[in-house]
Amino acid sequence: MPQSLSAALTRKFESIGALSTAQRSALDDLKGVTKPVSAHEAIVREGERPAAVTLLLSGFLCRQKVLPDGRRQIMSFHIPGDIPDLQSLFIDIMDHSLGTLAPSMIALIPHSAMLAFFRRYPEIASLCWRDTLIDGAVFREWMVGIGRRSAYARIAHVLCEVFVRMRAVGLARDNVCDMPVTQSDIADALGLSAVHVNRTLQELRNDGLMDLRGGTLMVGDWGGLRRAGGFDGAYLHLKDGHAP
Amino acid sequence: MPQSLSAALTRKFESIGALSTAQRSALDDLKGVTKPVSAHEAIVREGERPAAVTLLLSGFLCRQKVLPDGRRQIMSFHIPGDIPDLQSLFIDIMDHSLGTLAPSMIALIPHSAMLAFFRRYPEIASLCWRDTLIDGAVFREWMVGIGRRSAYARIAHVLCEVFVRMRAVGLARDNVCDMPVTQSDIADALGLSAVHVNRTLQELRNDGLMDLRGGTLMVGDWGGLRRAGGFDGAYLHLKDGHAP
DNA sequence: CGTACGATTGAGAGACTTCAACAAACGTGG
DNA sequence: CCACGTTTGTTGAAGTCTCTCAATCGTACG
């Protein structure tokens, strides 16, 4: 059930900062064209110069680069409320691609509309800047994982991250949330092979930490999963109250 | 020879965007306390709430996280002109540390001064936003390297990156530039062991691609190094004319 | 002139990969 | 609603890139 454009934005902004009543209602002014996109399709490709930003209303997106030999690296997962290509406002040429991992509903908001909105509501511009900075914080944390953590810890860590972020925008129920990705996607996100992800996922499952199947993540032992991944959500810079 | 605060900023901004004459002279208004820092010292630590941003005037910095077991991951190298903790303007708590790799000269500019400056010169605020976005682009590229490239390619790639960035701010002469890092630093930046970095560096040297010693990087075969690393500098989003 | 840090070398081990095959799940069209 | 092709998940075995341990060497510096 895709949320409305303004509802998605409100939830997102309130997860990382505060909105005044005026600002909250101002979000209604932001218009975009909503559009369904099926799974495994590109929304924006490396090298393009988009003229609009993408707000994810429902589904699951990722940003990725593909090497000449076909190997790929997924650099981030995106959940409803995210604007994964906000950067295109200030960086004209895309240096990576944005695509769907699951059937999704997106809203395209023209750059011009965003920039005009920023001029009118500078605090929201700052919130967006903050959001892109948090984006960077997530990249850094992933680098730590890929560079220095074992496969077991790495996988546990992303699962923790996705769960906490989903929870922060109200998309987790108890200890369950959507996570419609294949094992291959996880492999490409963490710099592993799909085969090894499969085996490690089984370990995590056998250890009772979590269960990931059919696109649904079930956290069996939050404390254990957290410890396994060495997860500390501080880098997500969420407003208090979102840490489980 | 450390540059002046405004000279460093001017070079930096002009490497990633355009400055009007008025904006260029406005940079003189930005004041900061300059301060020498010796090698291997922390400037800002994870968990702190800095009240100023750090402009690097000379030397070499890095951002890093240290895991509980002592292993560390360096997430970025910083060269003169960079403001590595600009993000602290909008993200109060540091989620990583900033430190020196070599003796450096830094300028500390209070947050209040930066924010006031942004209000007065919104175009420069946008340029700074752009800079933090490029920061993110570099993180993404490093993720590709750590996740999907061989040690040989990974090392070649960072060397290319540092060289191009140094060149963009006028700090490379012909095919030589400073790069005062230890092999251990490179290892921690690329998710490798120091031993393996040593051996791989020897390979690169024997292949005539480069020579890195005594803190100086000498590029022996730019085309070869570039090819070895699969390097394409587009992600640095420099203004035209900086690609060798 | 000792001490400490960084670079270098050798040898053995291990985490993860690749290849290959098969099973299960999924979507799609007849 | 079932058949069928495609994608995804699973398993086994062999291989390799990179790691760890450990010792040696060089060199800058107090």
Description of the structure:
2 copies of one chain form a homodimer. With 244 residues, chain A is α+β, with helices and mostly antiparallel strands. Helices cover 42% and strands 21% of the residues of chain A. Chain A contains 8 helices and 11 strands. Chain A has helices at 5-16, 21-26, 111-120, 122-148, 151-168, 183-190, 194-206, 222-229; strands spanning 33-37, 42-44, 52-58, 61-66, 72-78, 97-100, 104-110, 172-173, 176-178, 210-213, 216-219. In chain A, a hairpin with a 2-residue loop joins strand 10 and strand 11 (216-219). In chain A, helix 5 (151-168) packs across helix 7 (194-206) and helix 6 crosses helix 7 (194-206). Chain A binds a DNA duplex (30 and 30 nucleotides) through helix 7.
Mean pLDDT of chain A: 96
Strands ordered across the widest β-sheet of chain A: 2-6-4-5
Specify the structural class of chain A: alpha+beta
Quaternary class: homodimer
The fraction of residues assigned to DSSP E strands of chain A is 15-25%
Overall spatial form of chain A = globular
Largest interface: A-B, 40 and 40 residues
Helical proportion of chain A, percent range: 40-55%
**Biggest pleated-sheet summary of chain A:** 4 strands, antiparallel
Unreliable spans of chain A are none
Secondary-structure element string of chain A: HHEEEEEEEHHHEEHHEEH
Radius of gyration of chain A: 18 Å
Distance between the termini of chain A: 24 Å
- Number of beta-strand segments of chain A: 11
**Count of helices of chain A?**
8
